[in-house]
């Protein structure tokens, strides 16, 4: 029913593996170049070309490292800021999903006992399409509240055996 994505821990691990570490490495590298520059300048006079090239290299590496480090840090803080608001909105979407599943189940029961069920089948098709839209909306929340999406997936997998007659085919 749900598309398998990286878990929250896997996503955090990948962010730390390149983004933050890459930024830190560039910043440390620029500090190392600065130290090399100071040691070399203390031993002998550098030409204007050497001064310019070393300063441009230091500037480029430190700006790149700061940009990468700042971007990853701000992304992590932004997610933490919106998480409480996202959780309540996600709960509303998951509640809507549950309600649509119950409504589809009710329609299935009515279709089984009805003599002329063509209108009920059309309504059921509309409800099933709304269920799929809700599934897509739940997937959109995976980037912000992955733990809650996984919890909902588990709950629906456990309840899946109780839900009969609702087709999951699009």
Helical run tally: 4
Structural class by helix and strand composition: mainly alpha
Number of strands: 0
Q: Any idea how many domains?
A: 1
Distance between the termini: 10 Å
- Integer-rounded radius of gyration: 28 Å
Sketch the topology as an H/E string, one letter per element. HHHH
Query: What is the global morphology?
Result: rod-shaped
Q: Specify the helix fraction band.
A: over 70%
Q: What does the main sheet amount to?
A: none
Which stretches are low in confidence, meaning pLDDT under 50 for 5 or more residues running?
1-9, 11-16, 164-170
Residue fraction in strands:
under 5%
Mean pLDDT: 78
Explain this structure to me?
The protein is rod-shaped. Helix 2 (48-113) packs antiparallel against helix 3. Helix content is 82%, strand content 0%. It has one domain (8-162). It is built from 4 helices and no strands.
Which features would summarize this protein structure in a list?
0% strand; mainly alpha; disordered C terminus; disordered N terminus; 4 helices; 170 residues
Quick synopsis:
The protein contains 4 helices and no strands.
Task: Present the secondary structure layout.
Layout: H1 8-43, H2 48-113, H3 118-140, H4 146-159
